[in-house]
Write a structure and sequence with these properties.
- The chain is 18% helix and 33% strand.
- The chain is built from three helices and ten strands.
- The strands form three sheets. Strands 2, 3, 4, 5, 6 and 7 form a six-stranded antiparallel β-sheet that branches.
């Protein structure tokens, strides 16, 4: 199995509370993130300014994430770019602390017990995949627009409304009368042949 590009080794960080290190990462082989209509393509870099701090429970990771998502406008289908600039903070507990807390449960409002989700370190490594995906995907618009006041496409001809003249219209034919219109044309055609 291929190693996740989001795994980060914290071996340079002393395990004394208060120690801190800062890094700039650029992840390019991430497989893509997002939705069909708007996503960060797999070749688009995800830039991360990462700060890791030793705390008594483990390693606290704080990061600012930037990238560019591409997709299409939900109204006019024009290509668009969406700048991503998100922050996250996540605690990764040392493995021994995780084992102690793994069986802790909390009661939800409906009375069911949910296991506490605790991110853990794997040796000296932290996996930034979950926090980065959450920061990016949860903040992407599900219906992206090229601009707020995009008028979309003409429902009759499919052309972009903004590129059509102001007096652009289509003749509306009531489907209930369409059969009579065909009959009228046929009768008119027969009358012309008789003449």
């Amino acid at each position: 199995m291929a190693r996740s590009p989001f795994r980060f080794n914290t071996h340079d960080l002393p395990r004394r509370a208060g120690e801190m290190r800062e890094y700039h990462l650029s992840i390019t082989d991430h497989g893509g993130l997002g939705f069909d209509v708007l996503s960060i393509k797999k070749e688009q870099p995800i830039d991360i300014d990462l700060k890791i701090e030793s705390v008594s429970e483990g390693v606290l990771a704080s990061a600012h994430v930037e990238s560019i998502a591409v997709g299409e406008c939900g109204r006019c289908l024009e290509p668009l770019e969406f700048e991503i600039s998100e922050d996250f903070q996540e605690l990764f507990e040392y493995e021994k602390d995780h084992r102690k807390k793994k069986n802790n449960k909390k009661s939800s409002e409906d009375g069911e017990e949910d296991e506490l989700e605790v991110r853990q370190m794997d040796g000296d490594e932290i996996d930034l995949d979950g926090p980065i995906r959450d920061a990016i995907i949860l903040n992407l618009p599900q219906n992206p627009l090229c601009k707020v006041d995009c008028k979309g496409l003409c429902p009759d001809c499919g052309e972009k409304i903004e590129s059509l003249p102001a007096d652009h219209t289509h003749e509306k034919v009531d489907a209930r009368w369409a059969a009579l219109g065909d009959l009228k044309e046929r009768l008119e055609g027969e009358n012309k042949r008789k003449d």
